[in-house]
Design goal:
heterodimer, A: mainly alpha, MetI-like fold, B: 259 residues, alpha/beta, three-stranded antiparallel sheet, 33% helix
């Protein structure tokens, strides 16, 4: 390649081209951040407008202002009720996922157990949560236990399926490598399968983070005096729509926080790029 | 005469399925001298990878006897006398280049590096990756990943290196360079190498013995000693001697197939 002397004007043009490109990138980035915010604000505005123009009575739907006021004035009530729901959701999340990981490990090592029990698991999963909840309340009483059990059950299935897939979808040549190295089953599990399954596990955990909260709330609908679920039922019966909306917002805000915490954990743990996109 | 590093006598491998029986290898006999470089050349589906896996104790032969370094393949595997390089590098994506090379020390019982054998770092330098120790596989090119896999296979100084089309997925320029380096690594380590490929050029350039396999079922079509100088620049492939050998190989391949 020959050394080319660039004319100053050409150099300036190339620099200008780059500056323009960077400016375009920056504005695109800003747009990506601002547009979702604009969407939310627009929707709230539309809501306020509709309530105002159509003169919707407060027992049917509140205005956003009224919800905001309720969020502030009833903050302590909302938090007292969020606490048991959060405890149930997190306990259920831990219990359900731990059981799923354990059973996935057993399934991968004992194929006959998988063949015997996987259909049972699928069958239980097809029962809707609202149908499972009363059964568990009858079995476990009126305390936190049935809610935790429901949250655990709802987390269990996606994690089990993903975990089995993650443990099994190991590069066959990596498995052969382990055999050439005379690795034991335990070594192959901890050095290869488990780490291979982590990206799959986190996909499931992110789903589980929000469904665990749903499970706890559904559990509270059936016989409970505290919790987000109970508050939802009470405010509905009282035609207190502002309280109902405020409760829903608190519940989903908790879900989002839970989800973000799992996402953060994933970023800290899974620092490599998964071998196969999934 | 010394005992061969690999000795296969009347080896057959059949794969059974409900619909049919596939004969991957049929009565294959060959041997590799210690310190030799043998290429297994053949079309896809001729069972050359299967043959390599029989030697590595990854597949048990249906018939025949296999001796590896004077013992059974199983004993050789357990004694860590074998190194295996796969077609895709088979690196663990969560480990850095150095950690991947160190993997053999962490599995199969805790093992210390034999006295006097090269450290993982030195092996990375040997394959030309000094300075890349802390890079993750996704940060490396295909050729570099394969170099890491070679370094890993060389850890502990195996006496037999088995390579299953290691450069098959690489571009030609990278492949040429790695071929040259593999000759150098072979000379420096003194290991016996068994190298599977479907490239005539690669097989002839690398080896001092080529075993040509025909497909359906896999049989030995020819065994030929490659009479080329030990020092081989890439340009040797344009010499009349090389071209003549390559043409002969192609002839063996043509005879064995129905195409």
């Amino acid at each position: 390649m020959s050394e080319m002397a660039m004319s100053p004007s050409r150099e300036a043009a190339i620099r200008a081209e780059r500056d323009a490109f960077l400016a375009r990138q920056k504005s695109a980035r800003l747009k990506r951040r601002l547009l979702p915010l604009a969407g939310v604000i627009g929707l709230i505005g539309l809501w306020a407008l509709l309530v105002y123009v159509l003169k919707v009575p407060p027992f049917v739907a509140p205005s956003p202002q009224l919800v905001a006021v309720t969020l502030v004035t009833k903050f302590d009530v909302l938090m007292t009720n969020l606490f048991p729901t959060a405890v149930e959701a997190i306990a259920g999340f831990l219990l359900g996922n731990f059981a799923a990981i354990l059973i996935a490990t057993v399934f991968v090592h004992k194929k006959s157990l998988e063949q015997a029990f996987f259909p049972v698991v699928v069958l239980i999963n097809t029962i809707p949560v609202v149908a499972k909840a009363p059964i568990l309340v009858l079995l476990l009483g009126n305390g936190m236990e049935p809610k935790i059990a429901i949250a655990a059950l709802i987390c269990f299935f996606p994690t089990l399926v993903n975990m089995v897939r993650g443990l099994e979808s190991v590069n066959p040549q990596a498995l052969e490598l382990m055999r050439v190295l005379s690795a034991s089953k335990t070594e192959t599990f901890f050095k290869l399968r488990l780490l291979n399954a982590l990206p799959y596990l986190f996909s499931a955990l992110k789903i589980a983070a929000s469904t665990a909260v749903i499970g706890a709330i559904v559990g509270e609908w059936i016989g409970s005096t505290t919790g987000i679920g109970a508050l939802i039922i009470q405010s509905t019966y009282n035609f207190d729509s502002a309280m109902l909306y405020a409760t829903v917002i608190v519940g989903s805000a908790f879900s989002v926080l839970f989800f973000l915490a799992i996402t953060l954990a994933e970023r800290l743990v899974v620092r490599w790029q998964p071998a196969s996109g999934h | 005469m010394t005992a061969p590093a690999v000795d296969c006598r009347h080896v057959s491998v059949r794969f059974l399925s409900e619909r049919r029986t596939v004969t991957a290898l049929d009565d294959v006999s060959f041997s590799v001298e210690p310190g030799g470089f043998t290429s297994l050349l053949g079309p896809s589906g001729c069972g050359k990878s299967t043959l390599l896996r029989v030697v590595a104790d990854l597949i048990a032969p249906s018939e025949g006897d296999v001796t590896v370094l004077g013992t059974s393949p199983e004993e050789a595997r357990k004694a860590r006398a074998l190194g295996f390089v796969f077609q895709d590098a088979a690196l663990l994506p969560w480990r850095t280049a150095l950690q991947n090379v160190e993997l053999p020390l962490e599995v199969g019982g805790t093992r210390a590096l034999p006295k006097g054998s090269a450290t993982p770092k030195e092996l990375l330098a040997l394959v030309g990756l000094a300075g890349w120790e802390n890079s993750f596989p996704h940060e490396l090119s295909g050729g570099m990943r394969q170099r890491v896999a070679i370094a890993r296979a060389l850890l502990g100084g195996p006496r037999l290196l088995l390579m299953d089309e290691p450069f098959g997925a690489l571009d030609e320029i990278t492949r040429d360079r790695l071929n040259e380096e593999l000759r150098r690594i072979w000379t420096e380590t003194g290991a016996t190498i068994l190298f599977v490929t479907h490239s005539v050029y690669e097989a002839v350039f690398l080896a001092d013995q080529v075993l040509v396999l025909s497909a359906n079922p896999g049989r030995v079509a020819a065994v030929e000693k490659i009479d080329l100088p030990k020092a081989r620049p890439l340009s040797i492939r344009e010499t009349p001697e090389f071209v003549a050998i390559a043409a002969r190989m192609r002839g063996y391949l043509g005879k064995g197939t129905h195409e």
